[in-house]
């Protein structure tokens, strides 16, 4: 960690992502409030997410599930809360997503990140990092995988000195 201007940089720089890099976020529990607030805010007001009678009798799930968009959004929140992008993440450029199974109200969720690729850009101040982000429920079952491609700050020549002085 080091100082950059007047704010603390906590995140990982492009150079910090090594071939074997991986990490896991904290876990959070999905609540009914989470689902109801999310679908209402996003306009996903369909029976699949709101009507308990319909869910119980007309779906294979039999209980309230989270929309895939919510799972993705909360997974990104867990990644942000880990601090790895604080002060170093520049942009989420693109990504693919694959939903494997539902996440139910009451389920815990956590994200396991693994480096897939990193490459330089034409700008020496930043690089591209691609990770596989696998979302697991509290039973260890894979719920969703996505592969974000992010623009990440590179370490400036003086940053290495700043970090060693902070330690």
TrEMBL record:
Species of provenance: Kyrpidia tusciae (strain DSM 2912 / NBRC 15312 / T2)
MaoC-like domain sequence ranges: 24-129
Coiled-coil residue spans: none
InterPro entries: HotDog_dom_sf (IPR029069), MaoC-like_dom (IPR002539), MCH/BMMD (IPR052342)
Protein name: MaoC domain protein dehydratase
Domain of life assignment: Bacteria
